[in-house]
Amino acid sequence: MTKSSTQPILEVKNLEVSFQTYAGEVQAVRGVTFTLNKGEALAIVGESGCGKSVTAQTIMRLIPMPPGKIKNGEILFDGEHDLAKLTDKQMEQVRGSEMGMIFQDPMTSLNPTMTVGKQIAEGLIKHQNMPKEAAMNQAVEMLKLVGIPSPESRVKQYPHEFSGGMRQRVMIAIALACSPKLLIADEPTTALDVTIQAQIIELMKDLQTKTNASIILITHDLGVVADLAQRVVVMYAGKVVEQATVEELFYEPKHPYTWGLLKSVPRLDHDSNEDLEPIPGTPPDLFKPPVGCAFAARCPYAMKICLEKDPEHTTVSDSHTAACWLLHEDAPKVEAPVEVRGRKHA
């Protein structure tokens, strides 16, 4: 894995994103802050509806506005732009040339009426003023890079002529065509079977080493996190509840929500007949988020203060913070469950 530098490529500061609906305002992202360093892979994890995909799409400025709205915060990219303040036209120049995105479902993201070669070449012609013939030659090279066999003939084919795993490789080729500094992958393996998932993750690891691109991986699959990322941001109900290196998160998780996520993942060292333990209850309604800790209603360790006041982030180490009242010096000492502590990556 390519080593990341300590120089940030992306700084998200106190980001707040809401959606206006017929029923009222949904506070989808509530004060999210994190940093991504150059050459680093960062995973954002959490259950469906926790705000991770909205965060990623806001960074790319792909949320529809209206009904979406960036209410507060900064998205500082490469020390030059606050993406939250760019016009649509300025953002178009950044998107594609300096930032690329791999979506969850390639079939709905690829144009069914265009050959995959033309779809890869499109960005090169637009952002790098490449002549059409040179762009098509580069499209062949990109298909080769992402491991598609017979790229010279497949470049002339349409998306429906590719399997799901191959379509996802095409999406990666499009995202990487202009050598972006930042690649955002939103659940890139969800629609694929396990064998193909492993191949796509291996491909992304290999490409990160070759291109030194910074990656944000949006996922609910902690197995994928262990394979690809160096650091993890855990989100719940639109907020960051824990940030840590992969090792710290798997060996020393501090937030009860993270414990719940880890307990619900299959383990190789456990009996295959053993039931996985889901997190009881459901996430809160983001039309009217709770006053205190959003996880309190589902947390077996919740105290009175958890229902009344949102916890600040406590620094566990230079690279590890968690927002939980259990980390306060006056709180009762609660250890992570035995089945979570010292957990191996596998």
How would you describe this structure to a colleague?
- By secondary structure, the protein is of the alpha/beta class.
- It has a single domain, classed as P-loop containing nucleotide triphosphate hydrolases (Rossmann fold), CATH 3.40.50.300.
- The chain contains twelve helices and twelve strands.
- It has helices at about 50-60, 90-95, 105-110, 115-130, 130-145, 150-155, 165-175, 195-210, 220-230, 245-250, 255-265, 305-310, and strands at about 10-20, 25-35, 40-45, 70-75, 80, 100, 180-185, 215-220, 230-235, 240-245, 315, 320.
- The strands form two sheets. The protein has an eight-stranded mixed sheet, with helices on both faces.
- The chain is globular and about 70 Å long.
